[in-house]
Amino acid sequence: MPIIVAESECFGCALCVLNCPEDAMEITSSFIVAIDEDRCTDCGECLDFCPVDALAEA
Q1: What is the H or E stretch that residue 57 is in?
Q2: At 34, which helix (H) or strand (E)?
Q3: CB neighbours (10 Å) of residue 24?
Q4: Is 32 left (phi over 0), alpha (psi -120 to 50) or beta?
């Protein structure tokens, strides 16, 4: 299942980015996480690191 970002909750702490094993995430210029769907394997590792639960499986 794809990982989605609740943009209203994400504040760009980058914990998910730092812990993504596929290097499929980045912080945008508006301090929101963007996910590269071609690189993301939907492993869910990032979900464990988001302190505000801004990431979820679709």
Answers
A1: strand 55-57
A2: strand 33-35
A3: 20
A4: beta
Position 21: which residue type?
P
CATH number of the structural domain spanning residue 32: 3.30.70.20
The total of structural domains in the chain comes to 1
Matching residue, tokens 């679709």: 58
Residue 24 one-letter amino acid? A
Express each pLDDT in 5-47 by its tens digit. Answer: 999 999 999 999 999 999 999 999 999 999 999 999 999 999 9
Domain range spanning residue 13? 3-57
Q: What is the pTM of this model?
A: 0.88
